[in-house]
Amino acid sequence: MSSVPVTYGEASITPRGDYAHCRADYTCAQHWERYTADQHALFARLYARQMALVPGRACEAFVRALPHLQAHSGIPRFADINARLKPKTGWEIVAVPGLIPESAFFTLLSQRRFPVTVWLRRPEEFDYIVEPDLFHDLFGHVPLLFEPRFADYMQAFGQGGLKAQGQHALQYLARLYWYTVEFGLIRSDQGLRIYGAGILSSGGEVEHSLHTPQARRLRFNLPRLLRSRYRIDTFQATYFIIDSFEQLFEATAPDFTPLYAQAAAQTEIEAGAVLPGEVDEAV
Ligand code: HBI
Ligand code: FE
């Protein structure tokens, strides 16, 4: 399987990673025994950096699930995490060489199989990396797969993605993924919290997402979100806030066809743009 350019957000990236040995569904072996001591140490440093940031800023379900990763001292075996994850929500993580074509990605999500990249960033990429690597996927995405309602949403998203392909609507689903799974915020009794993996695995965006006055924070509004463009190479300029994972799951339950038609008939909204009459949510 050769590495073909993959759409990631609004960019097309020729992914890093060894695709020569992956299966037809793009899954491969983790080869945990091949990670070096330096890579385990780098992973542990990334983990420690985020653990100094996420308590009090990540949503409760994320913080509660982190111990299931057993990742504080280095890179965990995916099989060990699956032994705890599968009984909880029916999800399992599968190893992939890196970014995979959208159809393969959606297919895995629809089967409750989350693709986790096997390669880890280089030390010089400690602070920033564009492509999802092992740390982003494992630390950012896997904890919330232990949360039943979010786990249901992720499978529904995969099923929706398979349907969207026939309707040439992947760009809209990519925006939904971006503004929820990657960069979503959620209301809690203790205040605004983060559930987006792209924020939770980032050294700088945790603070930015909750506090910077430069960013827009809007109530989750699906028609508005589906028109909203975004950037993959800077902190986000707009965030959407949900009230609960139930709200997210229910909002995405109906047939999206009319929503796609509505989005296609209206102009796109630039990242960070303010529409007349729109007000930011109180943070
Ligand atoms: N592949 N491994 C992997 N991980 C992703 O997050 C991913 C992908 N392929 C496509 C993709 N994300 C985005 O285009 C989603 O919006 C579909
Ligand atoms: Fe991601």
List keywords for this structure.
283 residues, Phenylalanine Hydroxylase, two-stranded antiparallel sheet, 12% strand, globular, binds 7,8-dihydrobiopterin, binds fe (iii) ion
Q: What is the 3D form?
A: globular
Profile the largest sheet: 4 strands, mixed
Q: What structural category do the secondary elements indicate?
A: alpha/beta
**For the CA atoms, what is the radius of gyration?**
18 Å
Number of DSSP strands?
A: 8
Q: Unreliable stretches, pLDDT < 50, 5 or more residues? A: none
CATH architecture: Orthogonal Bundle
Order of helices and strands: EEHHHEHEHHHEEHHEHEHH
Tally of individual domains: 1
What share of the residues does DSSP label as strand, in percent? 5-15%
CATH topology (level 3) name: Phenylalanine Hydroxylase
How far is the N terminus from the C terminus?
46 Å
